[in-house]
Design goal:
This protein is mostly helical. It has seven helices and two strands; from the N terminus they run αβαααααβα. The longest helix is centred in the N-terminal third of the chain and has 26 residues, at about 15-40. The chain is globular.
Length: about 160
């Protein structure tokens, strides 16, 4: 149970930091629910016949986007959802970069790398910082205070 608490508990941050995490989780979570809902309608074939990924991977992407978005909105199993979304965004980034040769920012509104890159960064942020105090993770798993780095502990010793 201690491992689960360390994985899913909400680390202590300032109220302002936790409010910012809530805002990011909800806004990006809504975007993922919308993106994932369309994919969930045909989870094993949403890429169509020309899709590069087998059906099982398409279904995992649909699950990570729709389910992960829902998890981010309520802040439940946030880090696990962030891992799934981060993996999905890595594939999206690489497929756009390698297969489509997309630019980082499209000047014509076509495929671009910026959105999967930003979503990947949000996933990394939520893995690193946790969901914040305004989350179901905090209610279910509680909070924990990360231990101070060794350098900080050394600085506190009397000289």
């Amino acid at each position: 149970m201690k491992i689960l608490k360390r994985l899913f508990a909400a680390p202590r941050h300032s109220v302002h930091g936790d409010a910012a995490l809530l805002l990011i989780r909800v806004v990006v979570g809504i975007a993922f629910v919308i993106h994932g809902w369309a994919k969930a309608q045909n989870p094993f074939g949403w890429m169509g016949p020309e899709g590069f990924a087998p059906g099982i991977f398409q279904a995992l992407a649909a699950l990570s986007e729709f389910g992960g978005g829902m998890a981010w909105i309520v802040g439940l199993l946030t880090r696990l959802a962030a891992l799934g979304i981060g993996c999905t965004m890595t594939v999206a980034f690489l497929s756009q970069a390698i297969m489509a040769g997309a630019p980082f920012v499209s000047k014509t509104g076509g495929p671009a790398l910026e959105l999967p890159a930003v979503y990947f960064c949000v996933a990394i942020l939520l893995i690193a910082m946790g969901p914040g105090r305004f989350s179901l993770d905090r209610l279910v798993f509680g909070t924990w205070q990360p231990s101070a780095p060794r350098e900080a502990q050394w600085d506190r010793q009397p000289k």
